[in-house]
Amino acid sequence: MCQEKVWTGMERRSSERVYDDSVLNVWGTTQHGKPFFETATINDVSPDGISFYLRAEVQLECVLNVEICCRENDNLAPTPLFSGRARVLRVSADGQGGHAFLVAARFFEPLSTLQDLGGTEEFAEELRRAIELDEERRSFSEKNLDDHVC
To answer: Can you give the pTM of this predicted structure?
Structure first.
């Protein structure tokens, strides 16, 4: 039986995560080769990637189509705001809230904007701040490396 490995080192992510309760439309192919479409719950999102709870079982390295949606009214279907493709990096059993897997994926390219972002300005501003912080950290790290070169 395999033992679970626990990560005790420094965080490897290069960008800040935004924790968001938006919904996510996800579609692709399951581990068994069957097409699926599911409305999933987002765990967190960054400019580079996303993690979400999914019932469908997907393989590592598979490519999924995603739409980040805004649910302005519980009686209406979620409105897609951003669209893109993401490659699955990690799948782990979760078991919370009826969802079977926590999936982490990296975006291929920047997400496409599908709707006028009026009313979702806070979400967009949080993503902008995360990108700026990421760039500041990279600049600081590169400057420190340049200062220590012999």
So the answer is: 0.63
